[in-house]
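Predict both folds.
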Amino acid sequence: MTHEASLVERLAAVPEAARARLLAGLSAADRDAFPYLWEAWARPAQLAPEGDWRTWLILAGRGFARAEGAAFIGGNGTNKPKGFLAGPITNEADGVRAFGTLQYLASGAAGGFAASNPQDRLIDLIQTLRTPYRQGAVFVMNAATLAVIRKFKTSDGAFLWQPALSEGRPDTLLGYPVIEAEDMGGCAGSTGRTAGFRP
């Protein structure tokens, strides 16, 4: 990987005699402070830009959040967390499934949900998680999947998805919070995992 050198890296590349002359030109206070000065160690791309740095900080935060979200879902564990969907998967139940293997429940149709009673698979998904882990569990899905699921209704016409009733409370699906994560697989035509339900 190539990058622009920091001031310290450039100083280290200067012959020792020239480096000593440069440092001798600093005041004693500056020489003492130099090893602790971020601007000396930072590469140019790591320094705040000229002007309104708040925009730069907001954009950096958004980029970090996107990368972190992707890693927590599908990261391979190399220089990032191992995502909860990165391990092996099987449809085997708890008693037979190998430790560390993610259990999946088929949605009922290729690339989506079954045409009749699709909400039944969500109930089955909840019930496959053992009782102690259901408390505090959440649904995780992307916007496309959420758009499909938000239209699911009970036989009497009530929506399964419920908007938050007060500020600071999450939207819920069958009583469990929903986290929208774009790095999850989607419904239509997707070969990935459509929705997760996890503690």
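Second protein follows, with its predicted structure tokens after the sequence.
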Amino acid sequence: MQNFITFETITTKMSRTQTSELVDANSIMFSDWTVQKLDALSAKRDAWEQGIFKKANEELYSLLADALDLYYHSEAIIQSVEVKAHGKSYTSKLRVELSKRLKELGVKVQNNSTTLTMLVRYVFKSDRKRAHGYSQVLGAAIQDNVQPGNLAIYITNAGGVEQIKRRMVLSEEALAKREQVANATNSVKASVQPIEVARRLRLTPLLRGVGPDAFQVTQRRRRDAQLSHAPPSSWP
């Protein structure tokens, strides 16, 4: 996938207003470019679903590979020298545009949805369950640094789309449990600490001045007390 976007360079000689205006213009250009690519992918998905290859994994894997390629290119643009300093503005503009268009199509997207999920939802439109599953597959591929050209082999070797989905669900559950254990441990530590501090504060006055002399005095007092209660030696 070639990158046909040529951004105007932001220089240090520009005023804050000029920089803001240029960032806004470039981010709109980036958003429009991404949406155009998504429209092409969506048309390809329509052709796949309506054609004789509807159940062919090869066509599905090719479509997912194109979606992964688009994601990588979008991330590369955001991380590029021309954009990186203002990357959040570009991502924000894209998410706003995607949310707007998806809403027009009757597709609901949560505010906390990842950009990857939004891209996949745009391609697969209203099929939420399937789109979520495909975004999990692409998320796994991104974690494993899989390139688009190798995605079909990656999915096949992993046991297929459903197997990868199950693996990702298990990973998410394990992460959630780990966070629960960590939170519980921190909670216990937080509750025990005040008790330990109080205990030390109560003992501090007793421990002050305890040295060899104080120890000897204590031992002598105990010995005297024992002698005072001892029976007379003349007792039978």
